[in-house]
UniProtKB/TrEMBL annotation, chains A, B:
This is Transcriptional regulator. InterPro entries: HTH_LacI, LacI/GalR-like_sensor, Lambda_DNA-bd_dom_sf, Peripla_BP_I. SUPFAM superfamilies: lambda repressor-like DNA-binding domains, Periplasmic binding protein-like I. Keywords: DNA-binding, Transcription, Transcription regulation. SMART domains: HTH_LACI (SM00354). Residues 8-62 form the HTH lacI-type domain. It comes from Seohaeicola zhoushanensis. One of its GO terms (molecular function) is transcription cis-regulatory region binding.
Length: 345, 345
């Protein structure tokens, strides 16, 4: 047998099995048209050479696809991209390819994508947040596909997860805002009905208000989708209210950057006339003027940890959920409120 | 035969074929251990029911994977994400799933990923830029996998492509800068050795300089990787030079935003002391202070067009390469240079 350099070809298989390349091809594509004896010899050569004629045959030969799926709510901005890049780099170290799909924050699309990824051979899935139907949970359990929840962590989570405590993180941000003297708070948030991280952050914010003696019912919430434009429009709506907030907390840096842009366009000085805070510490948090006070999330660490955990889950190991730290980053968009009558702090 | 609701199961197949579920399983996983007659009956039931036990068997049954691969240089920032989101949304309309891989701007990783995606059943590929080895071109040709080049367009391209003319776009930006009176130009760019879009943009810039009577050899180029930090460091290096540029053109908005941040930290007023321009018109271009003068690229349109073209290529149709328009967006970071002695414009 000649020494093989690079990937074995159809001809290599034919040579080793002592048949024509047409027969090898027939074995792979229409095995029922080949005698069992011949087929066996060809499949042995395929196995011996590690020949991968196409994905399908390889999957059947190995029983493995070496593929992991991730479904993220959006690729349209940078919220998930940095963590995902690290997730993929780490998977690559374990010889796994990543398939990414984006659900556009729509649960019914996510469900369809989960089923599709599993049917297409995903050996494990990375999913964002905990919120999904019983149907799809049952499907994953029945198919025995490990699924790791990321970008979220809850102390009582039934599923393995890696992320941060959205409740605690938003409560910490709210405490900081309240400690500066703010009493009229508003929040620009994703719709909590389709985003459980947003829901938990709202709860954290309300809990911090209550703990500080503020009435959580006074919190004004503008829900919106995830774009920069939407953040700006939400800020404009808040600014048209009779009781303008003195501090606008935002569910992401993208929304906060949009709010800042709208404030600039309206001639509203930040933080003099209103404080604005972000959440995520994306690149944009450092380039707004002033730079954003925000919650730093461990994007790359979360991606790497998620990959390591999922690799272990695929190998059949049990993993413990992991909570990662966030940290408050104080930059220029948060200050004490001025008295609107006197202009004094 | 009972009516099936939802996906057919292994039991449905067994019932229709009149065998045990163990036999169905054996047919799918070790067909050589099943008699031909039985195997035929089971495979007929599999086909009749449209049963998809796993990706591998489905691929062999249908001969299709309904999967498209895209390899982008990075997921770490927003440069490719908006167009890719549109690409995926449009593919979804045609029932195709997208597998994304990220090459970290490394040609050898891209090549590995191309081979892996093809082996894993990608029916077509979206690739960024034209630059790749003869080996991998030959591989794609041999495998008959259509590959569409995006984010780049060249009039003489041998491969189908959809994108914009990087040469013309950077030349247009340079003409605008030169028309304001700038004579000392610098460029912060990706390494042209591994990024052919960057190479073509440098050529466009030099061509515009020559056409305006400037010596292209006076162009100072700082090459760097794609991050915000790198853009800032490159600006600092430019600012340490004895002949400081009066205008710094950047290959992406991310690099330009980094340069702006460094300028702010150095106390260098933009555009008073130096003009800075971006390229791509990402979200960040609108939130810097001042907002970035940049080249608007048709991200979402490029993604949608790419999907439509690739779907046609997979169907065996010939497609014509498509050039999309860019447009210069004048915002606040470009102005006439001040005379450094007199401070006058």
């Amino acid at each position: 047998m000649r020494r093989l350099i690079g990937n074995p070809t159809l001809s290599d298989v034919a040579e080793v099995a002592g048949v024509s390349t047409a027969t090898v091809s027939r074995c792979l594509n229409a095995p029922e048209r080949v005698q069992e004896e011949t087929r066996k010899r060809v499949m042995e050569a395929v196995q011996a050479l590690g020949y991968s004629p196409n994905f399908g045959a390889r999957v059947l030969a190995e029983g493995r696809t070496h593929t992991v799926g991730a479904i993220i709510p959006t690729m349209d901005n940078a919220i998930f991209s940095r963590g995902l890049q690290a997730f993929q780099e780490e998977l690559r170290e374990s010889g796994l390819m990543l398939l990414i799909a984006s659900s556009s924050y729509r649960p019914e699309i996510e469900e369809e994508q989960i089923r599709a990824l599993v049917k297409r051979g995903a050996e494990g899935l990375l999913l964002i947040g905990f919120q999904r139907s019983d149907d799809v949970r049952a499907f994953l359990a029945a198919q025995q596909i490990p699924a790791l929840v990321a970008w979220a962590w809850q102390p009582d989570a039934a599923q393995p997860c890696v992320g941060f405590d959205n409740h605690a993180a938003m409560a910490a941000m709210a405490r900081e805002v309240i400690a500066r003297g703010h009493r009229q708070l508003a929040l620009i948030s994703a719709d909590p009905a389709v985003n459980d991280r947003a829901l938990v952050r709202i709860e954290g914010l309300r809990a911090a208000m209550a703990a500080a003696g503020l009435d959580p019912a006074t919190l004004v919430i503008e829900t919106t989708d995830a774009t920069l434009e939407s953040g700006g429009l939400a800020f404009r709506r808040l600014w048209e209210r009779p009781n303008r907030p003195t501090a606008v907390l935002c569910g992401t840096d993208v929304l906060a950057a949009g709010a800042l842009t709208a404030a600039r366009d309206l001639g509203v000085a930040v933080p003099d006339a209103v404080s604005i805070t972000g959440f995520a510490d994306l690149d944009i948090a450092r380039i707004t003027a002033p730079p954003l006070t925000t919650m730093h999330l461990p994007h790359r660490r979360m991606g790497r940890e998620a990959a390591r955990m999922l690799v272990r889950m695929i190998a059949g190991e049990r993993v413990e959920s992991r909570e990662l730290d966030c940290s408050l980053v104080l930059r220029g968009t948060l200050a004490a409120p001025r008295d609107r009558e006197t202009g004094q702090r």
